[in-house]
Amino acid sequence: MEAKFSEKNSLTSETEKAPDGAFFLNLRDSMNKQVKQLLNKHNALNQLDGVKVTSHVQREDGEWYLNTIMICGYSVPFKYRRKQMYQSLNGQNVNITYYSATEQIAGMEIEYMKVTRIKRY
Predict the structure, then answer these.
(1) Cα(35)–Cα(55) distance, rounded to whole angstroms?
(2) Number of domains the chain contains
(3) Over the range 42-76, which residues count as b (16 or more CB within 10 Å of their CB) and which as e?
(4) Is the pTM of this model over 0.70?
(5) Angle at 58 between CA 52 and CA 62, to 5 degrees
(6) Minimal CA–CA distance to 58: which of 78, 85, 76, 77?
(7) 119, 95 in Cβ contact below 8 A?
(8) Alpha carbons 72 and 45: distance in angstroms, whole number
(9) Closest CA to 97 of 55, 37, 56, 21
(10) How far is residue 44 from each of residues 28, 32, 40, 68, 119, measured CA to CA in Å?
(11) Tens of pLDDT, residues 59-106
């Protein structure tokens, strides 16, 4: 089963052919639709697709776990909270929906990215 291409070389079927000949489901279209709806509804949101996590730290913060990740090519930390500890995302490619925020530490304003949605790529 070959994937069909339109004139612009974009996929028109639900499957894609991987370079090694294997087929996999094209889930990006459905995820992109959800992300587009979020981005249209909230103007301050941003989206990164397929970025590599270089560092992932999980710390207890009361009843929550504060997760901080660093992304390859970005010098700003991405932070989010979860109720329980998760697997490390070190070296994984992820899709992130986030918005920019600042916090005061020792009288200085530090910029960070507040993650609202994170999924493995």
Answers:
(1) 24
(2) 2
(3) eeebeebeebebeebebeeeeeebebebbbeeeee
(4) no
(5) 150
(6) 85
(7) yes
(8) 20
(9) 37
(10) 22, 17, 9, 20, 19
(11) 999 999 999 999 999 999 999 999 999 899 999 999 998 989 999 999
Element (H, E) at 110: strand 108-120
35 shares its domain with 58: no
The encoded tokens of residue 101 equal 């925020």
Mean pLDDT of 39-62: 87
Q: If 0-12 CB within 10 Å is exposed, 13-18 middle and 19+ buried, where does residue 78 land?
A: buried
Q: Average of pLDDT values for 9-20?
A: 41
CATH code for the domain in which residue 86 is found? 2.40.50.460
Residue 17 in tokens:
């052919």
Q: Which domain holds residue 32?
A: 1-41
* Average pLDDT over the chain, rounded to an integer: 77
